[in-house]
Amino acid sequence: MAATVSRTTKRSRFSLSLSQRDAVWGYLFVAPAIIGFIVFAVGPLIASLILSFTRWNLVTDPQWIGLQNWRTVFTFSAAETPPALDPDTGERLFRCGREKVLESQVAVLEGTVDARTRRVITCDPIYTVASDVLPRGYQEITRITLGDKVYVLGSRDPIFWKSLYNTAFLLLGIPVSMTLSLLIAIMLNQGLRGTALFRAIYYLPSILPIAATALIWTWIFNPDFGLLNYFLGQIGLPKDIRWLGDPATVKPALIVMGVWGGLGFGILIYLAALQNVPRHLYEAAEIDGAGTLARFRYITWPSLTPTTFFLLVTGMIGGFQNFIQPYIMTNGGPYFASTTTVMVIWQNAFRDLQMGYASVQAWVLGTIIIIITIINFLIARRWVYYQFEA
Q: Nearest Cα to 172, choosing from 282, 258, 245, 64?
């Protein structure tokens, strides 16, 4: 009898209550996701941070080099760039069209028409090359003009900083895409016939293979037989634009393609949000005599701010990781004008086998994304309205 009581007491001591059993089962169900996150996210994150202090080529053992990789990325130099002078006369040099001329000859060529290009000649001052004023090992990132003086900013890795600028420039397509998505979603929300068909047509680019659409747009932007230049010529506009071959037009061309590719997703999200706006708010506004613009300002837009915030944050995070389209269409050219940050990281890691240095660049990019995301969340408190709030 005593032994039975002892076994019962021992068994009850280690038995679990209903809530504890539920908790155990809950942890077991989420364990695969947690383990996967630790193995495939946290683990590589910590490993990349450690590798950023090493030199590793994937073949030999990593070599500890301390902060050398970080110094290479974050070391800058600035210097004034003096005007270029003619070695014989000491007179300032200008570039007029395709010619290098003396300052005294500028008035003769300025405003004339180039016989070869049929374009009006403009003259710009020439300045000393950056390599003559920057320290050894530094290359030009950009030039800044203050008054009549020109300063050059250099870095040991100018391509990385230029790629950050290119990536940020391509983000300009996000507000354009969101605006067009909202306008089209509003039109599709009017109860027109064929809404389902239009919705499918607009969403189709989002599910097409990215590589295939990139090749199609490469053909559209072709300067010789592309559809875009053909249609521009038909309406009397210049038809010899080198969209992907000119540093001045390659980024706008990529923005156009990005807007086209992301339009369908934004339309679908906005359309779902519009259909979720309470109808009684519109009815009350109509009774009060509110017009179309007033209803949009005080009802539609406040109801869409959470959706807009979601599209903004996810769009910026995805935009900073832009890689496939520029890689296929331009390979980062011309003259690194379309090179994105992820392209630079990929090239350093898997082409040049500089895994440690690529880890530093990846951490810089990740930190920028985190900071911008936090800023978006802080600012969102001022303009994002949730219906459950008072």
A: 258
My answer on whether 301 and 351 are in the same domain is yes
Question: 126, 156, 186: which is the final residue of a domain?
Answer: 156
Total structural domains within the chain: 2
Same domain, 242 and 122: no
Do 138 and 175 have their domain in common? Answer: no
Categorise residue 366: left if φ over 0, alpha if ψ from -120 to 50, beta otherwise. Answer: alpha
Instruction: Answer whether 126's CB lies under 8 Å from 100's CB.
Output: yes
Question: Does residue 110 belong to any structural domain of this protein?
Answer: yes
Whether residue 197 is found in the same domain as residue 247: yes
| Residues with Cβ within 8 Å of residue 33, at least 6 apart in sequence | none
Cα separations in angstroms, 358 against 19, 39, 157: 48, 21, 12
**What pLDDT was estimated at residue 17?**
85
Distance spanning both ends of the chain, measured CA to CA: 65
Residue 390 has pLDDT above 50, yes or no: no
pLDDT in tens, 32-64: 999 999 999 899 999 999 999 999 999 999 999
DSSP state of 150: E
pLDDT, tens only, 174-232: 999 999 999 999 998 887 788 888 888 888 998 899 899 999 999 999 998 899 999 99
pLDDT per residue as tens digits for the range 336-382: 999 999 999 999 999 999 999 999 999 999 999 999 999 999 999 99
Q: Where are the beta strands (DSSP E) in the chain?
A: 54-55, 63-64, 76-81, 93-96, 99-102, 123-125, 139-146, 149-155
> What's the confidence (pLDDT) of residue 134?
92
The number of beta carbons lying within 10 Å of the beta carbon of residue 117 is 10
Instruction: Tell me the sheet residues that pair with 92.
Output: 85
Q: 82 with 127: CB under 8 angstroms?
A: yes
Last residue of a domain, one of 110, 137, 156: 156
CA gap 346, 361 in Å, rounded: 10
Burial pattern 283-305, b for ≥16 Cβ within 10 A else e, equals eebeeeebeeeebeeebbebbbe
DSSP H or E run through 325: helix 324-329
Same domain, 273 and 296: yes
Domain that holds residue 135: 78-156
